[in-house]
Amino acid sequence: MAEVVKERVQSIAHSINAEMKDTIPDEFIMPVEDQPILTTFKGPIPEIPTVDLSEPDQEKRVGSIVQAAKEWGFFQVVNHKIPVELIRKLKNVGEEFFELPQEEKEVYARPLGATSIEGYGSKISKGAKSWVDHLFHRIWPPSTINYQFWPKNPPSYREVNEEYGKYVKEVGDEILKSLSLGLELEESRMKEAVGGEEIEYMMKINYYPPCPRPDLALGVQPHTDLSSLTILVPNDVPGLQVFHHNHWIDVQYIPNALVIHIGDQAQIASNGLYKSVLHRTTVNKSKVRMSWPVFLEPPAEFVVGPIPELLTQDNPPKFKTKLFKDYAYCKLNKIPQ
């Protein structure tokens, strides 16, 4: 039995726009302290780090990633070796899925009562609702993939996502290696600390329909990611914002760049040296915004905690060691860790 929803955000937006209304349902209006019109930084935007993964000087390349992970918890990467044509195909098949008739998308809906987040759905949150629909499914390792949630239409969806999974894994390995070297550890240590070869790569497609009142709504509310890393492809409609020095900063779109979020597990493993970035998403009045984040998560039964080699009398553990599934449960249910 599929997840029961009153109405998808895409359908709500379509009906509002068809009637030429300039309003949104009350449940999507954010509290004043979160409304983007009032909280987006209006001053000169500081330069958000961009890292060239083709930089031949490893020390320089690693240094750029480590500095960004410490100061921002966030950066963009260029020259990452994922073919431009593959990124274009990834976007195309995702766009085509969300253009399908509603009943066809509902075939992939998250089952009612499922413990996994996989499937098509809408963000269900306490308080104000987010202006977004989404599709979740794992793309790596092959043993974790459930093709039940992979659209059969468009026909090339599976081929494109399987190919993308192989490339994005290489990018993830490269960044985790740099984060490890930045801790003065063996290059494989960070990866081992967040799941090793069992790291699960969870694809999410976010679909943010045009919103008549982008000043009052958010596509995704402020949060940090559960993952160790998030590797994201955006479309060309701006909307991602990161919280830096007490300001919400707009992230500039760089064609074909990947957006990297340091997530909770990298912060925990590094015992707080790396920063899990607080971020949110705004929406657009006339254009569809979409994004394709891939979350690098430990398996449910994997034990997460600070890397023991980093701990000393002067650097005691700042985080508890626990099963990832227990960490996730506490985070999703807003229970103190």
- The low-confidence parts are none
Order of strands across the main sheet = 1-2-10-7-12-5-4-3
Element-level helix/strand string: HHEHEHHEEHHEEEEEEHEEEEH
Mean pLDDT: 94
General shape: globular
How does CATH name the architecture? Answer: Sandwich
- Tally the beta strands: 14
Helix/sheet category: alpha+beta
Radius of gyration: 20 Å
The first-level CATH class is given as Mainly Beta
Major sheet size, sense and barrel closure = 8 strands, mixed
Helix content: 25-40%
Relevant CATH superfamily: B-lactam Antibiotic, Isopenicillin N Synthase, Chain
How many domains is the backbone divided into?
Answer: 1
| Total count of helical runs of at least 4 residues | 9
Family: Belongs to the iron/ascorbate-dependent oxidoreductase family.
Pfam family, one: DIOX_N
Protein name: Fe2OG dioxygenase domain-containing protein
Domain Fe2OG dioxygenase: 198-298
Q: Which structural traits does this protein have?
A:
9 helices, 14 strands, Jelly Rolls, four-stranded antiparallel beta sheet, alpha+beta, 337 residues, eight-stranded mixed beta sheet
Please provide a written account of the structure.
- This protein has 337 residues and is an alpha+beta fold.
- The chain has one domain (9-333): B-lactam Antibiotic, Isopenicillin N Synthase, Chain (Jelly Rolls, Sandwich), CATH 2.60.120.330.
- The chain has helices spanning 9-18, 36-39, 58-71, 84-98, 102-106, 157-182, 189-193, 264-269, 324-332; strands at 50-52, 74-78, 119-122, 133-140, 200-208, 220-223, 229-234, 240-244, 247-250, 258-262, 279-281, 289-297, 303-304, 322-323.
- Helix 3 packs across helix 6 and helix 4 crosses helix 6 (157-182).
